[in-house]
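Batch job 17 of 40 flagged for manual review because the log was empty.
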Amino acid sequence: MNRTTIIVLLAMGVLVMQTETLCAQAERQRIQYEPTWESLDRHKTPTWLADAKFGLFVYSPNLTGEEWQRHYDLHGHKPNVAPHILDHYPDNWAARAWNRIDWDPEGLAQLAVDAGCRYLVFGAGAFMINRPSKYNDVEGSAHMRMGPKDRDYLQEVADAVRARGLRFGVYANYIHPRDHPEYLEIMKELIDRYQPVTLWLDGDKLADTAENLRTRELAAYYYNHSEKQDEVAIEDAMGSYKSATWGQKLVHGDWYRKEESGPHDNISDGYFIRYRELFYNLNYAPSGESGGAANNLIEWLIDCTAKGGGLEPAVFLGPPDHFDIAKRALRATGDWLKVNGEAIYETRPWHGGVPQDATANGTPVRYTTKGRILYALLFKWEPGGPTFHRLRAAEGTTIQLLGGPDLNQAWEQTTQGLVVHPIVQDMSRGKIPNVPGDHAFVYKITPIPSWFPTTPPESATSVQPNDVGEHIVTLQNGRDGYEHQTNEVMTSGQWGGHRGHSEHGSDQLFLFDDQSNQRYARVLVRFDLENQVPLGTKVTRAVLQLYASVGVGGFNTLEGRAALKPWEDGKTWWQQWGRGGTDPGYVDTRPALRGKVDGYGSHHFHLDPTVVQQWIDQPQTNHGLLLQTLAGDNNFHWFLSGDQSEYPPRLAIEYNHTTP
């Protein structure tokens, strides 16, 4: 054996060992999920789904009238599980039957690519199955084969979709296993064979408890038998529990559905997928107006993205004239995404501001973020340039119009807000295109500006936001190296034993006020301002942002007063700090901020600039704020994100300064 051979063998041995090590590590990282909520809720919504935003939902070809009647004659019930379908073969099904459509899985997958979709969901049928199965047409099973016996509709679409780099998911009509025990085995067969990355559940999904439906068993099987278990996502539709929160928030699973409903205003509590049918009922946009099928589709996509979800437009494969309309709208959306896709894909909602607003001219706006970038997506073109009256940009901010000329837009900060000037035509240098395309228009703002509410503060102070300061600084732990904000929660009554005295310093802040039962929870928040603004600063406006991770019980009023006594993070209890600041001399008698609070999401409050000014001029007096909700709703519990959370408190200070 020569030296070269020895070296090669050694290299192969090292490679084998490395491969075995990597495989062992991957195997150790897998989780064995149990059919319990405690176990299943450990699974997280996959990043790819939150990044994708846009998928195409395609219904399977229909069964024929003869197949429908054969199933009915043999089994005595309609071959579907949707209660609104009649007990006869609907006339409009014939035009979408497998023997009447032009079956083209390659063309369908390419349509998804052309539309800018990142994945495709295909229907798996109910009792009439569109694929091979050992449970088709056998004794004891109510499931029958649909279509040509040698055709596997799911596999053909899955292969075409994956060949184009897209992901493949499945829509299934859930059937109660009490009536049809074989159904769970059919679903397991589907999971093993097709490995769908997302799984819709319809049909009997809410008809009974999760225990009786055995949906947790299915979810555990799905997670455990998926090759990449951290990349799969099952719908939050696994039992009657979901009826109370249908279309509202994520409870279990990986995403929840919003179906043919009007738009909501706030960032969603959990990832959602909005189902919009392209074959009908796309005659209005989120703004309530209609600019045509493509325009409406684009605006729904923008609206979903801004609010923490995604869009799946649904299509039937026939009749041809209906499908042609859908294809035109989808391809127009793809053209728009080629220009503006960076404002959709891989973005996240703007938790530092709000997801939606309007310009000074009333044009609807939605906001998305990516890193240090804010995208402002306008539903209409404003020839004179938009004014974002609640945005406060910092010095050095750049603004670009996606799809427009490769130059920065001129802007200025005025009492009306952030004014973006239109592109100026210089005829001596030739005309410059200033309208980048059709439908929605996107301004890319870097870095992300601050959000300043326009409503006057509800405090007792006479200070009102008037003149705009020349400068702005935004302080938030984790932002630009700042790590000097601290907070403390103080509790009394029943809360004292298990939330305050034993858990003081917790990162989840808690506000509650029940005077009748002597139960309170209040919060101290402090921002260290030393060396954050130059000498000679004159504060013009200040805004405190708080992010509510949970809000229960309607709405209330938040009040903040300047703290007059020092406190120490993690060591301040209710009794120790003047009965939660209620004893004289612990807080200022005048409120420094006051505003309405409700549920989940970001809340912004004008903070008395004279208070902030004193903190800057006399740092020794800066003991922060005491926050409390005012009595009025004894059921109101407000949980805030603290200094070490993903969305810690934020203080934006606008100011002028002169060199001393």
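Reviewer: the log was empty due to a logging misconfiguration, but the result itself is present. The chain has 14 helices and 32 strands. Unflagging and moving on to job 18.
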